[in-house]
Design goal:
CATH class of the largest domain: Alpha Beta
Number of domains: 2
CATH topology of the largest domain: Rossmann fold
Helix content: 25-40%
Shape: globular
CATH superfamily of the largest domain: Response regulator
Structural class: alpha/beta
Number of strands: 12
């Protein structure tokens, strides 16, 4: 008997596709639940708290990007990884979803094997740390609590979106090292570095603005990307 890996919520208005994903995820050891509309997805996500959500962006009532935004803006559901299903070539939708905090995407038509592997990957990111000590990162006046996803500046909580939190923690982890825009697109947004997008620059500017004076620690390396300046630089 295959041990259950957790619950996956499948959100898609195509019944045949939901059935196909449902069967294969169960074969891979997951429990499953389904939702046909965006409204149903929001209700089930808040009630069931799944391990992963597979979210189609083309839904009949609420768009998938709106569902993603609402889930990532809700304290109860913001930590649930979201794997987006997008139409091939729908780059704008893909970028919008990733900017809202989606964890990964798969373009239709897709390989079932690829979906399972990507579900496995995003599910692993949500596994709780076995360490009883809180995991924290810090730089200058900034402190990040990785377990509770709380950012503090001079001891005061600073609300960040999930994507902003990821971006800041990635820069702090690489303190002093240049993170190119390609690095950031690949490792923070989980997307192709070939995408023509101002996503990185827009998020860095927004993050600096939120951090105020503390944001000056994020340094632009002209022609390359960004790095976190050492506090004594």
């Amino acid at each position: 008997m295959v041990e259950s890996k957790g619950l996956v919520l499948i959100v898609d208005d195509e019944r045949d596709l939901r059935t196909l994903l449902d069967f294969n995820l169960r074969q891979a050891g997951y429990r499953t639940a389904q939702a046909e509309t965006g409204a149903e997805a929001l209700t089930r996500a808040r009630t069931l708290r799944p391990q992963v959500i597979i979210l189609d962006l083309n839904l009949p009532d609420v768009s998938g990007t709106d569902v993603c935004r609402l889930l990532k803006g809700d304290e109860q559901t913001r930590g649930i990884p979201i794997l987006m299903l997008t139409a091939r070539g729908a780059e704008a939708d893909r970028i919008a979803g990733l900017e809202l905090g989606a964890d990964d995407y798969v373009s239709k038509p897709f390989s079932i094997r690829e979906v399972i592997l990507r579900v496995d990957a995003v599910a692993r990111r949500r596994q709780p740390s076995e360490s009883k000590e809180p995991r924290k990162l810090g730089a200058g006046k900034i402190e990040l609590d990785l377990d509770s996803h709380i950012c503090r500046v001079d001891g005061e909580p600073m609300p960040l979106t999930l994507q902003e939190f990821r971006l800041l923690s990635y820069l702090i982890e690489g303190k002093g090292r240049v993170r190119t825009r390609d690095d950031l697109l690949t490792d923070v947004w989980n997307t192709s570095p070939d995408l023509e997008t101002r996503t990185v620059d827009t998020h860095v500017k927004r993050l600096r603005d939120k951090l105020g004076e503390a944001g000056e620690i994020i340094e632009t390396v002209r022609g390359l990307g960004y790095r976190l300046r050492q506090p004594n630089d």
